[in-house]
Write a structure and sequence with these properties.
CATH architecture of chain A: 3-Layer(aba) Sandwich
Number of helices of chain B: 4
Number of domains of chain A: 1
Largest sheet of chain A: 7 strands, parallel
Helix content of chain A: 40-55%
Oligomer: heterodimer
Number of strands of chain B: 0
Largest interface: A-B, 6 and 4 residues
CATH class of chain A: Alpha Beta
Number of helices of chain A: 9
Radius of gyration of chain A: 17 Å
Function (chain A): Catalyzes the NADPH-dependent reduction of beta-ketoacyl-ACP substrates to beta-hydroxyacyl-ACP products, the first reductive step in the elongation cycle of fatty acid biosynthesis.
Number of strands of chain A: 7
GO biological process, one term (chain A): fatty acid elongation
Structural class of chain A: alpha/beta
Structural class of chain B: mainly alpha
Shape of chain A: globular
CATH superfamily of chain A: NAD(P)-binding Rossmann-like Domain
Subunit structure (chain A): Homotetramer.
CATH architecture of chain B: Orthogonal Bundle
Enzyme class (chain A): oxidoreductase
Distance between the termini of chain B: 15 Å
CATH class of chain B: Mainly Alpha
CATH topology of chain A: Rossmann fold
GO molecular function (chain A): 3-oxoacyl-[acyl-carrier-protein] reductase (NADPH) activity; NAD binding
């Protein structure tokens, strides 16, 4: 299998897209370390990978806390080796119309969804540069390009991630390191399950495919970007949204 | 135990992919050994690791040649 012998770090891997990504990379033979914010979450990642007969485990790491990232990366490197595949998936929403958005809603979303990507990427880059091979894959969102009422903070963070990714791609290309984004549309996860029926109906009208996406459909694109075959794709954002937005 | 000079030159060879015979004390990383900006960052990080020291950015910028690096390490470790 193509990712045999490589260690992948996937943030926010207990459920939804992160969980599917962890499985997809493990299916390609990678040793996958998934992060969770709680010990119970980390255990469920370990159990899920074990049940799938895959190599890997879960660890506790809070991407909003620099110290926690340092400790997490140390643990990964000790137990599984230097990660050469990084999937920044962990993210939160704190939705509100801008006129009502609190400073805390703004800063927590920027910290968790954007600053974390800077910190984890920086932390793994050295190992990737030494290996002369690396894959940084950041989970963005369709709203980074489209904008979305009630999500000024989330849209800003995700658009920031895309710009960050393009710079990273230019800086590290000649070390065999690629950096890309995958921008999901409406995917059937806990994040979209929060929406009420009326919101869901409105959503269906703007999705030509007429359905929500599955986490596995996002994970498949991440697995491709992580593969050897994608070595010449860098600085790109790939949309996975059933046709609702085409950039 | 190798001397500082030998250890610095070994790291320069590894990081910049040049032969030992090409590395003189007077060699400039950029002009003589073909380092780009990323190479010089990586080189400084490798020196920091080898000699268990931290080289501040403003000092790192001044390290233009092999001899500069040797002098810095000797003075600071």
């Amino acid at each position: 299998m193509s990712l045999e012998g490589k260690t992948a770090l996937v943030t926010g891997a207990t459920r939804g897209i992160g969980k599917a990504v962890a499985r997809a990379l493990a299916d390609q033979g990678a040793t996958v370390v998934g992060t969770a914010t709680s010990a119970a979450g980390a255990e469920s990642i370990s159990a899920d990978l074990k049940a799938a007969g895959a190599k890997g485990f879960g660890i506790v790491m809070n991407v909003a806390e620099p110290d926690s990232i340092d400790a997490g990366l140390k643990e990964v490197t000790e137990k599984a080796g230097v990660p050469v595949i990084l999937v920044n998936n962990a993210g939160i929403t704190r939705d509100n119309l801008l006129m009502r958005l609190k400073d805390d809603d703004w800063s927590s979303v920027i910290e968790t969804n954007l600053s974390s990507v800077y910190r984890t990427s920086k932390a793994v880059l050295r190992g990737m540069a030494k290996a002369r091979w690396g894959r940084v894959i950041n989970i963005s969102s369709v709203v980074a390009g489209m904008g979305n009422p009630g999500q000024a903070n989330y849209c800003a963070a995700k658009a920031g991630v895309e710009g960050f990714t393009r710079s990273l791609a230019k800086e590290m290309s000649n070390r065999g390191i690629t950096a890309n984004c995958v921008a999901p549309g409406f995917i059937d996860t806990d994040m979209t399950r929060k929406l009420d029926d009326k919101q869901r109906e409105a959503m269906m009208e703007v999705i030509p495919a007429g359905r929500l996406g599955e986490p596995e459909e996002v994970a498949a694109v991440v697995a491709f970007l992580a593969s050897e075959a994608a070595g010449y794709v860098t600085g790109e954002t790939i949309h996975v949204n059933g046709g609702m937005y085409m950039g | 135990m190798s001397t500082v000079e030998e250890r610095v030159k070994k790291i320069v060879c590894e990081q910049l992919g040049v032969k030992e015979s090409e590395v003189q004390n007077t060699s400039s990383f950029v002009e003589d050994l073909g380092a780009d900006s990323l190479d010089t960052v990586e080189l400084v990080m490798a020196l920091e690791e080898e000699f268990e020291t931290e080289i501040p950015d403003e000092e790192a910028e001044k390290l233009a040649s092999v001899q500069d690096a040797i002098d810095y390490i000797v003075a600071h470790t």
